Amino acid sequence: MAEITLNGIQKQYEGDQAPSVTDFNLDISNGELIVFVGPSGCGKSTTLRMIAGLEDITDGTLSINGNVVNQTPPKERDIAMVFQDYALYPQMSVYDNMAFGLKLRKYDKSEIKERVENAAKILGLTPYIDRKPKALSGGQRQRVALGRHRSESEGVLDG
Amino acid sequence: MKSHSKISALLSALFMGLGQIYNKQYIKGLIMMGVGLFILITFAVDFQHAMWGLTTLGETKQTIDGWDIVQGDHSINLLIYGLIFLIASILVLSAHVANVVDAYSVGKKREIGIVPNGIKETLKTMYEKGFPFAMLLPSVFATAFLIILPNLFGVLLAFTNYSSPNHLPPKNLVDWVGFDTFIDLFKMDMWSSTFYGVFGWTVLWAILSTFTCFFAGLFVAIIVNQKGIVFKRFWRSVFILPWAIPQFVSILVMQNLFNGEFGPINQLLLDLGILNERLYFLSDPTLAKITIVVVNIWFGFPYWMVLMSGVMTSIDKELYEAADVDGANNWQKFPKITMPVLMFSTAPLLIMSFAGNFNNFNMIYLMTQGGPVNTSYQGAGSTDILISWIYKMTLEQRQYNMASVVSILIFVIIASISIWNFRRTKAFKEEDMMS
Amino acid sequence: MELKKIFSVLATGALTASLLAACSGESANKSAPTQPAKKPAEAVKLEPEAGATLKLWDNGGKEGAWAKAVAAEFTKKYSVPVKVEESAHDKAAEKVDAAGPTGKGPDVFHAPHDHVGNMENSGAIFENKLGKAYTDRFVDAAITGTTGKEKQYGFPLAVETYALYYNKKLVKEPAETWEELFKQAKEFQKGSTDKDRKYGLMLEPGNYYIAHSIVGGYGGYVFGGKNGTDVKDLGLDSKGAIQAGEFVKKIHDELLPLKNEDIKGDLISSMFNEGKLMYRISGPWDIKNHQDAKVDFGVTTLPKLENGKVPTSFSGIKAYYVSAYTKYPKAATLLAEFATSDEMLIKRYEMTGQMPASKKALETDAIKNDAVLNGFAKQLKYAQPMPNIAEMQSVWEPAGKAFTAIWNGQASPKEALTNATKDIKGKIENQQK
Amino acid sequence: MTSKLSRNLRLVFSYAFLIALVVIVFYPIAWAFMGSLNPGDSLSKTKLFTTDLSFKHYIYLFKETNYLKWYWNTLKIALGTMVLSTIFVVSAGYAFSRYRFKGRKYGLMTMLVLQMFPSFMGMIAIFLLLDRVGLLDTHIGLILVYSGGGIPFGAWLVKGYFDGIPKSLEEAARIDGAGHITVFFKVMVPLARPILVFVAVNNFIGPWMDFIFARLVLTSPEKKTLAIGLFDMITGKSNTQFTNFAAGAVLVAIPITILFILFQKHIVEGLKAGANKG
C-alpha cells in the first residue's frame, strides 16, 4: 500500500561541482516494479538512498502515500532496502537478522516468530535459521537480506 | 517583513537564549539563558584576572616581614590559570556561536513561514543531528584540558625565563622573553653543540630501533607462519612475553645482564669462546649505542611479529593461488605479494613507531641513564636522546625554559616527518579519511 | 590593579624595614650592653598561632616512624595537631615548589642541605628565626650548611659523611695511608680469578660527591672565596684537583680496573657482604645493609694521602625546614625546634642510627660507644659541608662526568677537569641572566 | 625429491631458530625470576642454576611493605582507566568514523598532531590543573590523566576500525527502525569487539607500568601504585633493594602476561585495524 512520488528531486553533495541528481520526477504506484538502469555514477543509488532517507534531499519533495517525508528519519518511512552487499549483521544468526527490525518495532515475541518463520519458509531458509551469515553462500545471503524485510514493510528497494 | 533572522541572531549574540525566546522557543531559550547566566557568574568575574595573569605573569613578589609571609603573584600558577580560562572561554565561545547560528537559522525559517520547533521537536532534532557532537563531547573536554592545555603550557614556557637560579617563583617573577631562549640554544656553543650531537643520535636511534624491530618481527613472523611449523600459537605466545612484561622491569634486568664485568652475558660469551676479552657493553660510547639498539630488538620485535602474523593470515589466499597458477615459486611470491601487502598496511604504524622511539624515554633513562659520559656535551651523555636530555634539564637542572624549547623542536621534527609520511600513504589520501 | 600597586609598595617598605631591623639586630648582638632596648623580636617567646594545624614531610621507614613519634609528643605539648606524610627528602625541595602554592605542601619538611641555595632563590623556605641561642647548640658544619646567602634556614637533624668501611675478617689493622691500603689490597687481590673475584677497594668513581674527598685532600676546591661560595673562582682545574684526578686514575689502574658504568652500589654491597671486598667508601646509609648481612665490619677515616692529609669528604646535613608557604610560621618553627631538641635527636639516633647534629647529643654515652658511628664522627672532623649555593647544582654533572672520563681513560685528568671547569663556568654564566 | 629435502632442511633450520629465540626470550625472564629468589641484595650476583634459593624477598614484600595495598591501588586505577578511556575513545572514534560534521577534518588533524608532543611537556600544568579541581592525590585524578592522554591514539585506532565496517550495515539498521543509540550499541559495538578489547587491555596495562605520572599525581604513600612502590626500592642512594624489586616485579608481570596471552587474538585484530587505517 505504498505510493511514492518524487518531485523535482535534487542532490548536491557538498564540495562537488555538479549535482548528482537534478530535477528528478517519478511516480511509483502501489505494486509497481521499477528498475533504474544506467552507467555507474549516474545517481541510481543516490536516488534510492534519498528515498530510503539515508541521504538528505537538497531540493524538491519526496512523498510517500501523499505525505512529504523529506525530513522524516528512515525508520519512520516504512521502507525496506536490500543493499548491494546485503548488509547482514555478522554477529547475529539468520533468525535474529530477520527479526531485528520487528524487535525494534516492538512486535510481540510470538508474532515475530511467526513472521520470521513464515518468511524463512517462503525463501527456503528454514534449515539455516540458526547459522551466522558467514556460513551461508552468496545466494542464501541474498535471500536473508530479502527475507528480513519481507515480513515488515511494504515497499522494497533493491540497491 | 521583519528580518527575524537578523534580530534573533543579534539578540542571541547579546545574551545566550534571548534570540530563541524572540523566536518563541520559550523553554529552550530559558534553559539557554540559565546556562549563560551560570557561565557569567562562575566565569566572567575571574576571567579578567586570569587574563591579567596570563599577560603580565604577575606583578608582586612574595614578601616576608617578620613572621608574616605575604604570598605575591606566582607567575607559573598565573600562567596555568590563565590558560585554563583561555581554553574554557574558547569552549564557551563556540557554544555562544552555536547559539547565535541557531537563532539565525530559526529566524530564517520563520521568515519563510515555518513555525519554529517546540521543545519536543527540538529535543528530537537535537538527538538526530546532535548525536555525533554528544559522542564527541567527553573526549573534547578531556583532550582540551588534559592534553591541549598542558602542551600549550609547555609551549608557552619556552617564551619565558623560568629557570634556576634567578627566575624561580614565588620569590621572583617570571617574565615573557620572546624568542631569547631559542636564540640561546643556537647561539651558545655549549648548548648548540650538545643539541646537534644529541639530535643526530636521536634520529639515528629512532631509525635504527624502528627498522631493526620491524625486520626482526617480520622475520620471526615468516618463520612461525611457514607451512609445516607446528604449535604456531605456542611460539607466538612465547614470543609475546617481552612485550607483556613491564618495561621498567625488563630494562633494569637487561642493565644487569650487560654489566661489563659482572654481567652473565660477557661471561657466557667468554665461556663459549666467542670472545677473547670482555666487551664493555655499557661503558664504551659506540658499543653502548649498539647495545641499546640490540637490546631494544628484544623489547620491540614481538609487537611487529604479532602485527605481521595478523596481516599475513589475512592476505587473500586467492592471491597466492593465482600466483601458483602463474607458476611463481615461494621465493617469488614473497617479494611480489606478501611484502607489498605488509608494507602497505603497516606503513602508518611504522611512522608511529618511529615517533614513539624518537621519544623512547624509558629505554634510555633506565638502561644507561644517558651514559657513558660524553665530555663535549652539556648535561647529556653519549646515549641521551632529546627526551631524556629534557628530563635531566627540567628535573635535575631546572632549566624549564630551555627544556621547553627543545620539546618544541622535537615536536616540530616529529610532526613534519610524520605528516610528510602520512601524506604519502594511501590511507591519508582517501577521500573518506580527511573529508 | 591600583590596590595591588599600593599594596606592593607597602610590602616592599615593610621588607626594607625588616632588613634594617635584621641588620641592627646583628649589631645589637655585638654591642649588647649598650643597646639592650633593641633586642631582636625573635627572642620573644613563641606561641603557636591559634587554630594552627601542621603538616610534616619526612622520609618513610625509620625516619618516618621517628617523625610520627615527634609529632605525637609535639601535639601533646602544644596541642597543635600534626599530620606526618611520607616524602623522600631528596625530592622534597622540588615537591614543595609544586605543592606549596596550592596549599597542599608541608609546613615543615626534611631536605638535604645542598638544596638550600635553590630553595632560598625560589623563596620556598622560611628563615630560622630562633637566633644564636639555638644555633649554638649544633656543630658548626650543621649551621653553615643550612645557611643560605642571606639567612640561616635549617633546623639540623643529623650530619653524615662517608668514610672507609673495612671487613674485619680481611683486614687486621685498617690502613692509615693510601700506600698501606694499596699494599694490602694488592696482596688480597692476588687470589682473584675471573670466576671468583676479589677486590681490595671499591667506590663509585663517577660520583663527584665521593671524588671530592681526594680533590679537597690535594688542596683542590669547587668554589673559592671565604666560604667556598665565590662562583667566579672555580677550582676544579687547580693543581690540587688535577693531582686528585691522577690519583683517582691510579686507583683505577692498580686496584679497580673496572669501568665506571659497571660498578653499581648494589654490587659493591653484595661483594662486601660476601667477604670478597676489603674496603669500600660509603656513607652511613649502608650500615644497616651490612649489619643485616652479619658482616663484621668497622668504619674509619679515609686513608691519608701522600701529602699527609686526610681526604676531605663532603658532609651532608639532614635538616628540617619551615616552608615559606606555611600559614603558621610560628607553630611550624616551634615544631622544627621541638624536633631538633637534644632529647628528640637522641631518640632519632636510637631509632635510625643517624649521627645527631647537636653537640650535646653527640656527647651521650650511647653515641660515644657506637664504634661504627665513631668512625664516621672521626671522618667528619675532616669533612667539608657540600656547598649549598644554587650554582652547585651546575657542578655535580660536569664534575662527575670529568671523573668518569678520567676513570674510564677517556681523557687525561688535566683535559677532563679543564673541560669540566669550562662547562661549569658557561652554565653559571648562562644562568645569571 | 630435492624439493622435499630442501623443505625438510628449511624446517630443521626454522625449528633451530625458534628454539634459539625461545632461549633468548626466556633468558632475561628466568634470570629476573632467579634474581627474586636470590638471597642477596644484588641482582648481578644472580645465578641461573643454583640451589641457594630463598623466598625472603617475597616475604619481605608482604610483611615489610604495603605491597598488597599497592596492588589493590593499581588494580583500581587500571580498571578505572580501562573503563573511562574505552568510553572516551570509542565514542570519539565512532563519531569521527560515522558522521560528517563541521570541524571533523580539523578534529582528526588535531588528534594526529597531539600524539606527537613529548609526553611530559606539561607535567606541571597537569599537576596544577588537578589541584584546581581538587583531584590531586586522588586515584580518580590519575585515572583522568591516563584516560585523557590515551585519547588521540585510541580514537584514531578505533576510527580506523569502524571505517572498515561497511556503512550499509548501519543504514540497514536505520531502515530497520533503529535510532543512533540502537545502531551504536546493537550493531556497531558488537562488531567492534576486537578493537574494544584491544583498547581496553592496552589501557588496563598502562597504569601497571607508568611511574612518571603516578609519582606526579599521587603524593600520599597509602595511595602509591605498584610501579612507584617498586621503583622507590631502587632509586636513591640508600635504596638498593634490587632483589626485592625483582620479586615485586615478578608478581606484577604474571597477571599481565596471562592477560596478554589470553587476549592475543584481539591484540592482533586491534593492531591490524591500526595498521590498515593508521
From TrEMBL, chain B:
GO terms for cellular component: maltose transport complex. It is a multi-pass membrane protein. The keyword Transport applies. It holds the Pfam family BPD_transp_1. The chain crosses the membrane at residues 26-45, 78-101, 133-159, 198-222, 287-307, 341-358, 402-422. One of its GO terms (biological process) is maltodextrin transmembrane transport. One of its GO terms (molecular function) is ABC-type maltose transporter activity. It is found in: Cell membrane. Residues 199-421 form the ABC transmembrane type-1 domain. SUPFAM superfamilies: MalF N-terminal region-like, MetI-like. Keywords: Cell membrane, Membrane, Sugar transport, Transmembrane, Transmembrane helix, Transport. Its main location: membrane. Belongs to the binding-protein-dependent transport system permease family. MalFG subfamily. PANTHER family: MALTOSE/MALTODEXTRIN TRANSPORT SYSTEM PERMEASE PROTEIN MALF, MALTOSE_MALTODEXTRIN TRANSPORT SYSTEM PERMEASE PROTEIN MALF. Part of the ABC transporter complex MalEFGK involved in maltose/maltodextrin import. Probably responsible for the translocation of the substrate across the membrane. This is Maltose/maltodextrin transport system permease protein. It comes from Peribacillus deserti.
TrEMBL record, chain C:
CDD domains: PBP2_Maltose_binding_like. InterPro entries: Maltose/Cyclodextrin-bd, SBP, SBP_1_CS. It comes from Peribacillus deserti. It is a lipid-anchor. This is Maltodextrin-binding protein. One of its GO terms (biological process) is maltose transport. Residues 1-21 form the signal peptide. Belongs to the bacterial solute-binding protein 1 family. The lineage of its organism: Bacteria, Bacillati, Bacillota, Bacilli, Bacillales. PROSITE patterns: PROKAR_LIPOPROTEIN, SBP_BACTERIAL_1. It is found in: Cell membrane.
From TrEMBL, chain D:
Signal peptide: none annotated. The keyword Transport applies. Residues 71-263 form the ABC transmembrane type-1 domain. InterPro entries: BP-dep_ABC_trans_perm, MetI-like, MetI-like_sf. Its main location: membrane. GO terms for biological process: maltodextrin transmembrane transport. GO terms for cellular component: plasma membrane. One of its GO terms (molecular function) is ABC-type maltose transporter activity. The chain crosses the membrane at residues 12-34, 77-96, 108-130, 142-162, 183-205, 242-263. It is a multi-pass membrane protein. Keywords: Cell membrane, Membrane, Sugar transport, Transmembrane, Transmembrane helix, Transport. It is found in: Cell membrane. Belongs to the binding-protein-dependent transport system permease family. PANTHER family: GALACTOOLIGOSACCHARIDES TRANSPORT SYSTEM PERMEASE PROTEIN GANQ, MALTOSE TRANSPORT SYSTEM PERMEASE-RELATED. This is Sugar ABC transporter permease. It comes from Peribacillus deserti.
